[in-house]
Amino acid sequence: MPLKANFQNSALPRDMLKNCMWEPQHNARIRQIFEIKGSARLRSLMNQERRNYSKDPNHVPKYIPESVWCQLLHYFATDSKFKN
Fold it and tell me: pTM for the full model?
């Protein structure tokens, strides 16, 4: 019988913790999988938004506040990890 996981100060969404159950010995692996998949999803979203911006410089994603988007654009333009 699966047990409800107990994450203190968890990075996992509250809904997931409310609706998903697993045995406590799996906590570390579940957190690792969540972080891997979450970072891949966020990276994919940001890459798509950067492509949209390169096609249309007036593009601002609806789900990102404009002030945050401006900071992201600055980061993309000045950080050496990003190919421009």
Answer: 0.67
